[in-house]
Amino acid sequence: MEPVLTVSDVRKHYDNRFVLGPLNFSLEPGYITAVVGPNGSGKSTLFRMLMSLAYPDEGSIRLFGRSYPENGVEIKRRTGYVPELSEWDDSWRTVKDAVRFYSHWYPNWQKDRFQELMQLYSLDPKLRFKGMSKGVRRKLSIALAMAHDPDLLLLDEPSSGLDPFASRAMVEDIHRFMESGSKSVLMATHIMDEVKKLADYVIFICYGQQLGMYEKDVLLDEWKAVWVERSSDRSKQFPGVMESSGSGPVRIVTSSFEETRQALAEEGNPIIKTESLELDEIFYHLMNKHGVSAGKERGAG
Ligand SMILES: Nc1ncnc2c1ncn2[C@@H]1O[C@H](COP(=O)(O)OP(=O)(O)OP(=O)(O)O)[C@@H](O)[C@H]1O
């Protein structure tokens, strides 16, 4: 099957202050992929490039096998985008004005679906843009992005500012959206619980550097914290061992549970306890492995 999105060797820099890339990944249809990374890592810049609102300095981006600028209209009609900050037309006064614009721009606009989404997020159709709260803007942005039944949803921190009821409604609605098996979602988020509940794949980006793309379940199966009775210098060289702390019992973090388990058993120092790792701890160790630590940004110069 043709990838819904292919990002190849994409690089972007802002003056001498920020370098993003090279980014390389592709998304098969039917999956949810989360983009995770600290503030200022380039997640929104990536999303803006996918919508042709920012331009890569190098590399190529293909959506549905098409590229910008030639196929921009087709790409955008098949995509639902929730930006980090919605910038709407100043002339719009009520939701009706937005609907008029969206239903004209998207031939596949579904009136009933939009009404369903308005109800789901408890949005009043008479809502006015002036003075609209951050959370309400976000809910409206999600409803507008989904009502034309896009093939790909690009969600930039969609639950930022949402109350817990709206967040839950969004997660359930995204699950429903995925039911046909042909839709795809790429979402940036800082909420690990959201990644756990929704994502099939995770792309880690740290201060512009892509640390990897992983299948979430594989990541959670392979990365473990294990405890053994005694420390040994050799265990630090065992396959997968990322960190070893304490003197007895010793806590070992591994990215390759089975290999580490075997090596420890062969050494006669068997595992006495195993725990799953949270995604944020996995991310922390990946950052260390790649030599990036919190707050250490890469400059272009
Ligand atoms: N238009 C721009 N001009 C100059 N620098 C920019 C511009 N847009 C983004 N940047 C810089 O690019 C870097 C990445 O920003 P970006 O918003 O893409 O990160 P992010 O991962 O989405 O962050 P957050 O998690 O805080 O939303 C930051 O250092 C930011 O200041």
UniProtKB/TrEMBL annotation:
The keyword Calcium does not apply. It comes from the Bacteria. InterPro entries: AAA+_ATPase (IPR003593), ABC_transporter-like_ATP-bd (IPR003439), ABC_Transporter_VariousFunc (IPR051782), P-loop_NTPase (IPR027417). SMART domains: AAA. PROSITE patterns: ABC_TRANSPORTER_2. Residues 5-232 form the ABC transporter domain. The keyword GTP-binding does not apply. Keywords: ATP-binding, Nucleotide-binding, Transport. It holds the Pfam family ABC_tran. GO terms for molecular function: ATP binding. This is ABC transporter ATP-binding protein.
